[in-house]
């Protein structure tokens, strides 16, 4: 089991623990805002489970049916997470509406608030773990899970403070207003996850800093060639795909051109993890006098 998959499995356990704590806090207080907080944690459980499934699928090696591998499975996971987030927000709006029509007395029991605070601390620690590992492994599934958890931490802190104020002032509808704000925040989080996932499914290019590194390595290692042009990149989950045309002198032997390609590929693989390079060699008559000049 990879480190990324272990983190994802750990997320399932953490999410279940946090869900249990938040639901207990709701039972102790009767707060709709804390109920909305618990419902968001239910989404976290589904999110973590989906991420585990996606990571297991994306880790499969390329085969005849999928010659470029299964890395995009993580984006489908992130799309599912986005949809679940939206469903959770709509469920909270429903509870707010019903609570507004039929207000229920709020019991801001210190024990319930303490349990909710403990759940928030656990979420905050795990959020840092997910975001760190997600960036390191270039995992859309872990990153989406971490970002959603971050919004959960922020909304939980706001809800907890609001419930305390509502209990002290007796303004019970403040509890419902807070729950509505949580739902809006969840909707925004869902939109962000969906937008980034669709971008991944549409084969977006690598970030500018990674592209700059790729261009420099090609220029440094292509000694003997003339230029490299038509450089294209795309990112699918943790995988990065690069292809370009390498122009060499017309009289150069195939063996020499192949050696240059090997040198470039080795350098790129040493600098960028999980990269697949495809180079099309062309004679000097195909030079465009643009792109990447060879140093």
Automatic annotation (TrEMBL):
Q: Which organism does this sequence originate in?
A: Ancylobacter mangrovi
Matching entries from Pfam families are given as:
Cation_efflux (PF01545), ZT_dimer (PF16916)
A single Gene Ontology biological process assigned to it is:
intracellular zinc ion homeostasis
Membrane topology annotation: Multi-pass membrane protein
The UniProt entry's sequence similarity note says: Belongs to the cation diffusion facilitator (CDF) transporter (TC 2.A.4) family.
- GO terms for CC? plasma membrane
- Localization (cell): Cell membrane
The record ties this protein, via NCBIfam families, to: CDF
Which molecular function GO terms apply here? cadmium ion transmembrane transporter activity; ferrous iron transmembrane transporter activity; zinc efflux antiporter activity
Arranged from A to Z, the UniProt key words for this protein are: Cell membrane, Membrane, Transmembrane, Transmembrane helix, Transport
**Which residue numbers delimit the Cation efflux protein cytoplasmic domain?**
207-284
Q: Keyword check for Cell membrane, yes or no.
A: yes
What main location does UniProt list? membrane
Cite the Cation efflux protein transmembrane domain residue spans from the record: 11-202
Which domain of life does the protein's organism represent?
Bacteria
Q: What is this protein called?
A: Protein p34
């Amino acid at each position: 089991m990879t480190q990324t998959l272990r983190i994802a499995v750990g997320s399932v356990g953490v999410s279940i623990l946090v869900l249990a704590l938040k639901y207990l806090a709701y039972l102790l207080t009767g707060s709709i805002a804390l109920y909305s907080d618990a419902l968001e944690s239910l989404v976290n459980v589904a999110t973590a489970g989906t991420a585990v499934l996606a990571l297991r699928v994306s880790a499969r090696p390329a085969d005849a049916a999928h010659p470029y591998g299964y890395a995009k499975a993580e984006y489908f996971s992130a799309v599912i997470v986005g949809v679940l987030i939206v469903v959770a927000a709509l469920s909270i709006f429903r509870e707010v509406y019903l609570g507004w029509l039929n207000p229920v007395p709020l019991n801001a029991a210190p024990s319930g608030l303490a349990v909710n605070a403990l759940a928030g601390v656990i979420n905050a620690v795990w959020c840092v773990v997910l975001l760190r590992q997600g960036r390191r492994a270039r995992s859309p599934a872990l990153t989406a899970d971490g970002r959603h958890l971050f919004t959960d931490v922020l909304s939980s802190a706001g809800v907890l403070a609001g419930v305390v104020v509502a209990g002290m002032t007796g303004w019970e509808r403040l509890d419902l207003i807070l729950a509505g704000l949580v739902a809006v925040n969840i909707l925004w989080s869902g939109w962000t996850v969906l937008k980034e996932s669709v971008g991944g499914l549409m084969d977006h290019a690598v970030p500018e800093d990674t592209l700059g590194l790729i261009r420099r390595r090609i220029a440094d290692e292509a000694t003997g060639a003339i230029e490299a042009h038509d450089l294209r990149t795309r990112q699918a989950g943790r995988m990065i795909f690069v292809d370009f045309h390498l122009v060499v002198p017309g009289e150069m032997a195939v063996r020499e051109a192949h050696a240059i390609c090997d040198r470039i590929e080795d350098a790129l693989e040493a600098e960028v993890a999980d990269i697949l390079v495809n180079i099309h060699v062309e004679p000097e008559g195909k030079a465009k006098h643009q792109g990447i000049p060879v140093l």
